[in-house]
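Re-running Pre-mRNA-processing factor 31 to confirm reproducibility after the cluster update. Everything else is unchanged from the original entry.
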Amino acid sequence: MTDYENELLADFGSDGESDVDVEGIEDKNLEVEDENGYVPGGPREKSSESSETGGGASLDPGAYLRHLISNSSITSLQKSLETFDISKIYDITKDSKVLPIIGYLRDKISSYQDDMRTDYEELMSTLTFGTSSNSEVSEHSSSEISQYQFILMVNEISSIINNEVSFIHAFNTLHYKVVFRELETIVSNPVDYARIMLLIEQDLSSINKYQEDLKSIVSNEKVLVITMSAIQQVQNSSDFKLSEPDFNTLRKSSSLVLELNELLQDLSVFISNKLFRFAPNINAIVGPITTSQLLTASGSLKQLSITPSCNLPSLGVKDLSSQTSGSTSRRIRQTGYLYHNELVNQLPEEIQKPVLRILSGKITLAARVDLSKNATDGSLGSKYRLDIENKIEKLLAPPENRGDKALPIPMDPKSKKRGGRRFRKARERLQMSDLRKAQNKMAFGQQEDSIMDSFGEEIGLGMSRGVSTAGGSSSLNIKVNNRVGGKVSKAMEARLKNEEANVNLDNFLQNTNKEERTERNATNDATRRINDERSESKWFSGMKRKRDTND
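Result of re-run:
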């Protein structure tokens, strides 16, 4: 419970059964646990002393219960296994923390079972807003306050009882494995294990006579496996049996497991009856225990209805840090009350997250319906749970096996051919010639003539050279179809004519240029020759004038 709830419950005062101061008890008698795991001065020790001495004062069970819930981490299975050495514990019933208060819890359940006048909604709204004065709180009777306190404690009590059942089961399997080693692996349920151990005890050789009784505990398949394992162990190993005092200890521990399981069922029925009036639709979806946990964590039904659905998986989470042990391999960090519900906890990790999302949304809707006082018979919650189960089945279903899809029927459109003279001519032009047909035939009983092509491959000629006769001559009667000879299309003829005209033009231009160059060269030669003659005449006349001047 939260600090605010503890303060409010302290304001409520005592439940009218005892005037013992809780804080004083916690300081004096409930400080530490001894090496065996129980509280010195607790109800078990006091009750044992009073039974031995014939009477005496005992500690208030209500105060002890509140202290046990406030220190619930001490009673966890992991802490118990780390703190105690089970192999050194002789009688585990002496170390039970719930055994001293079983009678107290049953008295509370029986006293509140018939009392249907408690206005639970009003009490929860008082807890939510915290605005009620002391005078308003004092209006409630002491029985109503006590009942409300007990309802708030039920969910914590259930977790403590489950941890103790697991701890006792570890004790039973450790000591009984010397008698029946395979039973631990066949039956994992602590309650079924305890029932089978009390039924067959150490008489494994007569296991067949217990088959009918075993069928009322486990399935027929497991009964067969248990029978065969017991017979095999008797045949392959010595018939080891525990001493009578040792087995009496196992009887007591197994009986305690059955008693704790019965107490859990009574608590579940009690809280289910109470919460069915207050939150019937939520109760129909997740059950009474988870419903009480969610209401206690949120504070009231109104607070739960206005809480976003994405925050519901975080309610009840003790540590969101991913550094805690065991959380590295877990895909979900929000392991709160909803995660430990039967709808989610037993599912594969791959679908737990989507199931939590679906479940949170449905719980929020159901809380709003319960707050508005609609569907008080829980029919809407049952419908929501059915929807959740259907969605879980779809998530668990294997992927749809889609076979190979058949190809569509081929649509063969009618070929677009054109008949008539043009088509016949085209087919005649492209068909195999008579010479090729003769090459593809071979004369019976005669060697075929062959030639070598340019690539060195041998090509048979068949009957293309005729059929050899006895005289050595050959006859070849092949008709040549002149109509299928090589023909040039009109377009090709036009292209050839254009190319021929271009070639002629190029030749003409080349010849013209050649003639022009020849004429130009001849003109240049004549001009050069004339210039040379002029230069010679100038030189001769100049020399003559120079000689005349000297004379």
